Amino acid sequence: MKIHVTINGVPTDVKVAPNEKLLDMLRRMGYYGVKFGCGRGECGVCTVILDGQAVMACLTFAAQAHNKSVITVEGIGQPGNLHLIQEAILDHGAAQCGYCTPGIVCSAKALLDENPHPTEVQVREALKGNLCRCTGYQKYVEAILDAAEKLRETSGRLE
Amino acid sequence: MFNLGTQKIIKEVDQAAGEFIEKCPKFRHGRKEIDLHSGLACIMLFFDLEMLEMSKNLCVVKGVAMSALRDFKRPSSVAEAVAMVREGPGRGGFIAGGTTLGLARMLPYDFLVDITGVGLNKLRKVGDGIRIGAAATIQQLATSPLLHNSGLEFLIQAALSVATRQIRNMATVGGDLVSGYPVADLPAVFLVLDAQLSLTGSDRMELSLRDFFDSRVSGSLNGALVTEISFPVPPQDSRGFFVKFARTENDVALIDLACLASLEGRHFKWVRVALGSTVLRPSRLLALEDFLKGKPAEEQVLAQAAKLATKDLSILDNIRGSRPYRMEMIQVLLRRALLNCAQRGGGDK
To answer: Can you tell me the ipTM of this complex?
Structure first.
């Protein structure tokens, strides 16, 4: 079957199997920033943004993304042109092994798009579904709060 | 939201599950249940979802076909969705958020019917009641201004206790209540709210959530679609309380306990208490509710009440928590819930 989906801003028609997961579809198409971790919605490394909402791509059927917009880490920033969230993660040395980072960037992006003024508690709540087995949560929280502030400054300047 | 397979298949697998329990001492606490999610009997052990998978494999062993999905349909109305599942060809199942269906490697369906595009995602107030679309996401519930303004903070707390943000963004209220997911967090709180399920594609238009859980084995939905969940807004003077007790912040619940009580001075006018996740089926504690009627909220009464709470219940006993531990904790949480309701002034429920 065919679905119509907008991936990182690019509308595409994709042939998918009815039981194929969004995670498998994206990786098949070369979006390797979307990682496979547990495959059962517990670790969050497969987090992508589906119509503005962070979701687990491993639990989502590709067919559920029909006529929707999917944003992966590849659509948030590119090497040389990083998103402020990614800059902040670098600045804070938050990424250790880096496997959980794309998922965390997506969770953080969805949070900051919805709520530009998150409290620390809200950041922690948004990251609850993203496991980091290097256990570097503190620096991620600091980085995201920092990114939120910088994003507010930038958008203030633009206005 | 589920389509049960033919009675014959259910019978066969039900028997197979029984034999399986008898043969393996490890599964002595297992119970046969019809897994609403697949429409097949399976052993609900609640050790972990792997066990659920194992029991599904058992279905495969016994010759019940678990098929690869052949189609994914997107109806535009409730009537069309129900007709699609009824008419086939092959076995069809409803899918909403898909966070439970997505866990299974194999599904006993030939096709899925997506009900997220048929207008079942609204929360509204109708008269003195609240009606929640079955396909409203749990995150919608958690952030609903309507629930907040109706003083239903304990329902919001229950919604926020469900898994993680990514799951809540997809998982739906209807799915959490009727998908048969063994550690769903919402049943307890909707039970104390006396929720009703609205059905399409069935002889009955309405089914109380309590009857739904009580009649699970007979598979009461039988291809019908749950369209809405409704309940009367609790009276001003009542107070609600919800607690999810789990090993860690992210783990599934060991115990979900919800309580709604109305007091006159220090005395309980009426109390509703329900348990989820720690019992085979989410249930109201009716004997306890009767006992508390008209009694004062005093330590001695609460201690007696706590003892009544676990009477006649089949409390689970598994790797997450032993039965004695769970019983002890149910009593502790119950005392806390009742005291909390008794001590709070008006305002929030």
So the answer is: 0.96
